[in-house]
Every structure is written in structure tokens, then in C-alpha cells.
Amino acid sequence: MIPLVERMDYLGAQSNSLAYSMSVEKLLGIEMPERVQWIRMLLAELQRINSHLVWLGTHGMEIGAVSVMLYCFRERELLLNINELIAGFRMFPSYIRVGGLREDLPRGFHEATREFLDRFPGKLDEYEDLLTKNEIFVKRTRGVGRLSKQDVQDYSLVGPIARASGLGYDVRKAFPYMFYDQVDFQVPTQQEGDVYSRYLVRVAEMRESATLCRQMLDRIAAKGDFCVDDPRIAPPPKDRVYTEMEALIQHFLVFSQGFVVPAGEACVPIEGPRGEQGFYIVSDGTNRPWRIKARSPSLLACQGLAKMIVGGLIADVIAVIGSSDVVMGDVDR
What we know:
16 helices, about 325 residues, Cytochrome-c3 Hydrogenase, chain B, globular, alpha+beta, four-stranded antiparallel beta sheet
């Protein structure tokens, strides 16, 4: 399932795999090792920055600021390099899995991540120098596509869209999961509910995520567990698979048949790049889920489009759609 859920919201791949894995783990009744949880949190925050960089670059380009896209994709490339370092894949690493992580962190991960975090705040300043007080950008975005606080509640909108209208709902604060109650961060909000406010919120979120990543990186031990100690769920280490027949058989069983999940239902929501997302999973006690319902924030964001564009200009539709940060794979899923 992990390769599938990662391709739904393809800009929030590791957030999706985290939400799915946590729901299955709740059904299994297993607790992740502390080190695994810190690593997962770090990867989820790096994924948030990654997603927001794509949003900012493409949003700026769509309303005329072409150079911003080149700047944002420059930093995003460094995050894709980190994905490639840990898993060999750039956009869909399938690194977070039920039971923990695919394998341990590679040599050089801490250094590569810290190098990015040292560089990134200064680059954020560059983005803001280009846009925040740019006369053309401000005229194209301020007062455009307004949503009131009541509107976002009526349409069940979440994430940066809701926070730009004054609704400070964030799953990490409202229903802390993993160790989010042990780290310091703020939930950025604005009150105007327009395209410009949504820009300000996402830029501020990138700053907060960078701060969070530093806290998490400092808490990840260089060596330790990267999955649960349960051979029914986590495949054996590769060195044993290559040398022991029993390990080879267990590896084959895990990847060909999966594992039995007790009957029941579970959903563990998380705060993804576009807001609250999760997977409601129903198990009938077999090795295949009986039903899965994806809670997609992009689908809900589409509901607010008419409210934001009616009465405006045709040219403003481009700015409004961009500010919604909708991923159509997440809508269609």
C-alpha cells in the first residue's frame, strides 16, 4: 500500500505514508521505538518544506514572478537529494513503512540535513525579498479570493487555507501525535483570508518547520532501532536474508502475503502540508484491508473555489487556484 498512498498526494508522499502506517500500527497495537518516531517527525517536516517550496515556486510563476520558481526549486533539489540518500528514490522513497522504517539512516544523513537547515532560512529571506513587498505581487494577491473564518468552517477547509482566515487548527497542537507535544513551535495564522494571507502563512510555516527539524535532528541518536522487533511485521535485515534460509523465507512471506491485522477500525490523523489528512482503515482480520477511506484535504479545498472567485476577475482565478495548493492526485486518489 505504501507506494500507492505516496502517489495520491505526490507532494506529501512521506506524510501520506506516515498517516497510513500509523493507522495500521494502531490496529496492530504496536508502539514504535522512540528513535523511529523522531526520524518520522523529521521526515514529515522536511516533506512539508518540500511541498511548500513547490507551491511557492509554481504559484509565483503563475502570477508573473518566474524567478521565484528557480529559487524555490534550487532548495527543493537539496531535499530530493536527502530522499535519494535515505532510500535511492527522490519523490517517492517508500521509506516510512508499517512497523518502522525501511532501513537505518545512512552515513551522512545528519550532516546533509543540517547543511540544508543552515542554508534554508537565508534563502527564505530571498524569497520574501522578491515577493512580500513586491508591488505587482501584492496587487495580484491582497484582497483577492477572500474566505472568512466562518467560510472555512462551513466548507470544512483545513491547513494553511483555514489558518489564513484566522482558524488556528493544527492537528499537531490539537491532537498531538508522536512527540509533537515535546517540541516548541508556533502555528502561524492570518486574519484576512485572501491569497496574500495564504502566502504569508505558508512562508511562516516553512520557517517553523525548519526550527522543528533542528529540534528533531538533535534528538535522533546516530545508532539504534529503525523498526519494531517483530519478524511477523518487519522483514529481517538484508544481511540475514542473504545468509539464512529462515530469514529468506520470512522476507518472502512479508512481501508476498503481508501480515494479518486484527479485526477493527482505526484512523490516526496527522497534519500534512495541505492540512489534516488520514486514512480510515477497516480490517476484517485478514492480511488485506477490507476498506480504506482517504481523508484528502485537497478534495475539500476544491469546495471553496466558487466562494473565492465569484465576483472577482477572470485573471484572479489563477491566483486563487494557486493559493489553494490543490494536488489533483489527492483529489482523485
